[in-house]
Write a structure and sequence with these properties.
mainly alpha, 18 helices
Length: 339
Amino acid sequence: MSRNKLVILALTVLVAMVFAGCANKFKTSGKISMGSKRWDKALADFQQALGQTPNDGEVHYLIAMCYKEKDDYAAMVSHLNAADTLYTKGEKKIHDLRESTWKELFEAGNADTEKGNYEKARGEFETAIDLMPDNYAAYINLGVACQHLEDIDCAYSGFKEAYRLEPEKIPVLENFAGYCFNVEKYDEADVVYAKILEKEPEHIDAVIRRGMIASINGEFETAVNYYKTALEKEAFNCDLWFNLGVLYFQQIKNNDEALSAFSRAVELCPDDVNANINLNVTFISMKKFDEAVANLEAFTLDFPDECVGWDLYSQALLQKGMRSKALDAARKFEECKGE
């Protein structure tokens, strides 16, 4: 090697050593500033160090720690992401920092959700997701916060992403299916409810929801079968009997079955106004006026402010030829409406 080349090589090595020395000086100064909690000074020093050695993963990790203390989570995540690839020796430290910060944000988001601070909670859950995008729990709670904010797209994407990450967990499936049902994404909800039933055939809520979806889709006999399956396990569920009655009366046009279902609903829940009204509408439709009059006489005494009761009572009395009583019931109906 020529003498000139040796001189150039020596100068190159010397320059590298000078830069490394400067970087180490800034890095050391930054660590000292961190020890005294002078976060801005530490950040300035570490940025100087990065200017000299931009691939120093430990410096990126230290910067992330400083940004955490300043609650600048976006910058923190950016430098942690850089440290992931550049600071392989610090893999555990990086993971621990991500996990501890995730827990803090997750708990803060839960607390703000309980207080009704949904917008703040949303931000905390979104930042937690940025830190640990593979942890499904933050997506579910983000969905809940966005649901309170009536942000349908945000809530839907939160629940759906949790489902993508944990497609075998029943609570995750329940959340996603339930939200899809609530926002009328019935086909998607039905697929998830079917998956729930594959795992838990006795999951009554999933059976009922599949029945409701079948009814919405015009598959009325299928809906009946789902409701009957549910009633085998929950025979005292008056809401189920009521829904079955509505299905028979309005869609299948089977008044006998409707009457049986509404009668059972009223027997189980005698104070259920809707069940009582639908029972008496069915009586009148079947021209069972004696039964209707007897039921409506008691109903209007128990629920005098339910105007439709007086209207039905008037109709039933008129059909029986009891004109005077029918007119009296009709007057009470008008008075009720006027209140």
